[in-house]
Write a structure and sequence with these properties.
Layout (H helix, E strand, L loop, with lengths): L14 E4 H4 L1 E3 L12 E8 L11 E2 L4 E3 L1 H5 L11 E4 L7 E4 L4 E2 L3 E5 L8 H10 L1 H7 L10 H5 L2 E4 L2 H39 L14 E4 H4 E3 L11 E7 L4 E2 L2 E2 L5 E5 L14 E4 L8 E3 L8 E2 L3 E6 L5 H7 L3 H10 L10 H4 L3 E4 L2 H39 L12
Parallel strand pairs: 3-8, 4-7, 13-19
Antiparallel strand pairs: 1-10, 2-9, 3-5, 6-7, 6-9, 11-21, 12-20, 13-16, 14-15, 17-18, 17-20
Helix pairs in contact: 6-11
């Protein structure tokens, strides 16, 4: 790991130094919010609200701005472009490089690099990215985890000569561009799929050869819900693989699950799954809480946090699954959520959810179109995971000197 550098094993010309020896470390501050003249003055100010904009290389814009008056009347400092910034609180370990001069809140550390003699900003950015798991381990606190300033005073970096730093940063930047391109393609494909769903699942757009009206039905008309299917189970002890809410992500059952034994067939054991069933999360409902039950998951049981939907004969399982992601159904679920600390929908409400349905053959054809879209997205997501994994492995080699780069002679 990058954090476990063996100083004696570093290549010739590399140095292992305190980061403070080769950069100018700074922090930030929040101007008094009771003074409106300190705010909205054109000075971009990185705060915890910008967490989602970090870890993407450059940070271009911020959620909030402060003014020169806010700078003068607080401990905030305007850091120059190419300053590297890292969150030490919520979103701990996230980092970025400033595209233009910006200030930061007290929740961030900022390092100014000279970029022409000792330290390249993008080399430092990648070093911090590689150390992110270590930063997450160092964070402490019950409500908001944070890393204290003393930790950063002792932080060390393995430093090759500047030309090698620049070359390493260029190589890793190429991988970042490939990752960003793939993420953009995934986003575009998801938007296209959403638009297709909106038109196909409501009948606004019809596939060739189909006509007739869509019917607006209750879920109870198209699926059996949590039906008991223990008729062939006679033993007093039952052993099943168990699917919890955390086992379902992005429409799939992800984990290889352990067996759990139940005595005397409790209510949970009535949820024995079969191929073609659909899981609908009723606790903390969200778009990751749905999954199709495939052959390898049959004979498992599901958490009581799911409703188990068993499509009736005249209805296509894949059509119903895709409908769960439609804006129409999402709005219905949102309107039924109760509770603030542990939001959920009542299982009894599932039966009254509404669904647009054409006749069976059109359901099947619509599902095929959407399945193809989903397969394309899943393949790109696999490619994205591969790119990130390969970049992480390359970072580990390049940032420790285990793999060297060729640098053109001056």
């Amino acid at each position: 790991m990058v954090r476990d550098i063996n100083e004696s094993a570093l290549p010739a010309g590399w140095r292992f130094l305190l980061l403070d020896e080769v950069t100018k470390r700074g922090s930030g501050h929040t101007p008094n919010k009771d003074h409106p003249e300190y705010w909205n003055g054109g000075v971009k100010w990185i705060s915890l609200s910008d967490s989602s904009a970090l870890d993407k290389g450059y940070i271009f814009k911020t959620d909030k701005e402060i003014s020169t008056e806010g700078i003068k009347n607080s401990s905030a400092v305007v850091h120059p472009a190419e300053t590297v910034v890292l969150s030490r609180d919520a979103g701990v370990g996230k980092s970025a490089v400033m595209k233009e001069p910006m200030a930061v809140s007290q929740h961030f550390i900022a390092w100014r690099c000279d970029n022409d003699k000792v330290l390249n900003s993008w080399f430092l950015y990648n070093w911090l990215q590689a150390l992110k798991p270590e930063f997450e381990r160092q964070a402490v606190g019950s409500t908001i985890k944070t890393i204290g300033l003393p930790y950063f005073k002792k932080l060390k970096i393995a430093l090759p000569p500047l030309p090698e730093q620049t070359k390493i940063a260029q190589i890793l930047s190429t991988w970042d561009k490939a990752i960003a391109t793939t993420e953009k393609l995934i986003g575009n494909s998801q938007q296209q799929k959403k638009a297709l769903m909106q038109s196909l699942l409501t009948g606004k757009k019809r596939l060739p050869g189909f006509e007739g009206e869509f019917k607006y039905l209750n879920f109870s008309d198209v699926v059996g819900i949590d039906q008991q299917n223990l008729k062939n189970k006679t033993a007093d002890d039952f052993s099943f693989k168990y699917i919890s809410l955390t086992d379902v992500k992005f429409g799939a059952i992800e984990k290889s699950l352990e067996y759990i034994s139940f005595k005397n067939a409790p209510s949970r054991a009535r949820r024995i799954l079969k191929e073609g069933d659909i899981l609908l999360a009723t606790v903390r409902p969200n778009l990751q809480g749905f999954a199709r039950v495939k052959k390898e998951h049959s004979e498992m049981i599901a958490s009581t946090g799911f409703s188990v939907l068993s499509p009736k004969k005249a209805f296509c399982s894949d059509y119903i699954f895709h409908y769960l992601y439609s804006d129409n159904l999402t709005a219905q679920i949102d309107s039924l959520v109760v509770g603030s600390n542990y939001p959920a929908i009542n299982s009894s409400d599932v039966a009254n959810l509404k669904i647009f349905c054409p006749e069976y053959n059109e359901q099947v054809e619509i599902a095929k179109v959407l399945n193809n879209c989903l397969d394309t997205i899943e393949n790109m997501q696999k490619k994205l995971a591969f790119l990130k994994q390969e970049k992480a492995a390359l970072m580990q080699q390049l940032l420790t000197g285990k793999r060297r780069v060729k640098v053109e002679a001056a």
